[in-house]
Every structure is written in structure tokens, then in C-alpha cells.
Amino acid sequence: MYGLVNKGIHDMVCSRFGENIWQQIKQKAEVDTDVFLSMEGYPDDITHRLVKAASVVLNLSPAEIMEAFGEFWVQYTAEEGYGEMMDMSGDTLPEFLDNLDNLHTRVGISFPKLQPPSFECTDVEEDSLSLHYQSDREGLAPMVIGLVKGLGNRFDTEVEITQTQSKNDGAEHDEFLVKHKPH
Ligand code: 1MF
Predict the structure, then answer these.
(1) d(CA 54, CA 43)
(2) Under 8 Å CB-to-CB from 127, ≥6 apart: which residues?
(3) Is 143 touching ligand 1 by the criterion CB < 6 Å?
(4) How far apart are CA 117 and CA 133, in angstroms?
(5) By CB neighbour count within 10 A (0-12 exposed, 13-18 middle, 19+ buried), where does 80 fall?
(6) In the 8-state DSSP scheme, what is residue 52?
(7) Model pLDDT for residues 118-143, shown as the tens digit of each residue
(8) Distance in Å, CA 93 to ligand 1 centroid
(9) How far is the CA of 2 from the centre of ligand 1 (A)?
(10) Neighbours of 69 (CB within 10 A)
(11) Once rounded to an integer, what is the mean pLDDT over residues 71-99?
């Protein structure tokens, strides 16, 4: 994944727990990169090792860390140079979710190493929708839960998200029920 992801994990950990805890996590993960370059591609394994190590050092589950990071990511990228792109992607939670594939297409034009996931909304009602998530990567469903909560914060929309099917249980893709205040 692009270094922006690992840099985001670094910035989240350092802002909440400090540089000292980050050094412990890095050491445990056996990662010796001092500075992640946003526009460089890194093996996914580095990200997974950082999350695993953070879960040990912070005594949280990997899923809790990924969810917290997803929630963090929405505001983080808006502040790290992608604010305009986020602004163009919708004014409401359902509109933004429906535009996510377009957003990734735009990012992928400039950054060809992007391996974008795909999001599809079905059963769209005034206050709910089904969100279908497909990715070449494994294990990121908890991050999706956090991302949707982050979008709830962004649009000041109370949101409830539950996973309704999981690749872990043999489903073809991950699916979530998203309930939100009508707009
Ligand atoms: O392949 C990738 O490196 C990659 C990195 C981040 C692919 C997707 C993403 C974003 N996505 C991460 C979780 C899912 C990953 C997966 O299943 O494979 C989050 C998508 C998302 C969902 C809800 C709300 C907002 C979301 O993201 C907005 C977004 C998406 C991509 C970027 C920024 C904001 C982005 C921008 C530049 C990137 C990489 C990602 O790379 C750079 C950075 C600086 C210079 C050059 C390239």
C-alpha cells in the first residue's frame, strides 16, 4: 500500500500515545523504516505487522486498531492534501459511499500502484443501505467499519454499521448494513 497508509498509522499512534509508544511498536513489528514516504509503495505485510505489534503494545485487538484507523483516515486524508477530492465526492454519507469507486479511479490515474477496493450500495432507503465491499486485500473489514463511522463524523450524521456477511465465513464478499439519519 502507499506509504500514506503507514504514515497515517504513525501519525495516529504518535498523536494519541506519543513517540515512545511508536518506537516500541516499530521494534516489535521489526520495521526499521524511520519515515514513510506517502507516494512510495510498501508491501502490505509492513502494515499488517505494525497493526499486530500495536495490538500487543496497546492491549487492543487488531480489529479495534483497524477500526480506529479507518475512523481516523477520513479526517486525516482530508487534512493531508486530499480535502478537495473528498469535498468533490459527496455532501452526504450515502452520496459519498456511492462515489467511492470514482474517488479511487481519480487517485489511481495519478498513482498507478493503487490497488483500489470496490464499494457498491444496494437496497438504498432514506435511512439505510447495504454496503458491499470487495478488495484484493484480506482482513480490512474492521477498517471499513471505522471508515463509515469517520464519514458519519464528517457529515455530522449518526450512523450504525453492522457486518451482515463476511469473507471469513465463506461469503463471496463482505457486506454491511448501514443505518443513518435521513438527509
Ligand atoms: O492500494 C493502496 O495503496 C490503497 C491505499 C488506500 C488503496 C485504498 C486506500 C484507501 N482505503 C483504504 C482501505 C481499503 C483498502 C483495501 O481494501 O484495499 C480507504 C477508502 C475510503 C473509504 C471510505 C472513505 C474514504 C476512503 O478513502 C479516501 C481516500 C482514498 C485514497 C487516498 C486518500 C483518501 C489515497 C491518496 C493517495 C495515495 C493513496 C491513497 O497515495 C499517494 C499519496 C501521496 C502521493 C502519491 C500517492
Answers:
(1) 18
(2) 179, 180, 181, 182
(3) yes
(4) 7
(5) middle
(6) H
(7) 999 999 999 999 999 999 999 999 99
(8) 18
(9) 8
(10) 25
(11) 97
Residue 58 in grid coordinates:
496497546
Q: Is the distance from the beta carbon of residue 4 to the nearest atom of ligand 1 less than 6 Å?
A: yes
Dump strand ranges (E) for the chain: 118-122, 128-134, 159-165, 174-180
Mutate to test the pocket of ligand 1, among 2, 7, 121 (most ligand atoms within 8 A of CB): 2
CA distance 153 to 166: 25
Taking 90 as the threshold, does the pLDDT of residue 182 lie above it? no
Residue 175 backbone zone (phi > 0: left; psi -120 to 50: alpha; other: beta): beta
Residues 6+ apart with CB under 8 A from 45: none
- What pTM did the predictor assign? 0.97
Predicted local confidence at residue 115, as pLDDT = 96
Q: What pLDDT is attached to residue 41?
A: 95
pLDDT of residue 103: 97
Helix (H) or strand (E) holding 2: none
Neighbouring C-beta atoms of residue 24, cutoff 10 Å:
16
Residue type, 85: M
CA distance readout (Å), 80 to 31, 73, 85, 129: 23, 10, 11, 29
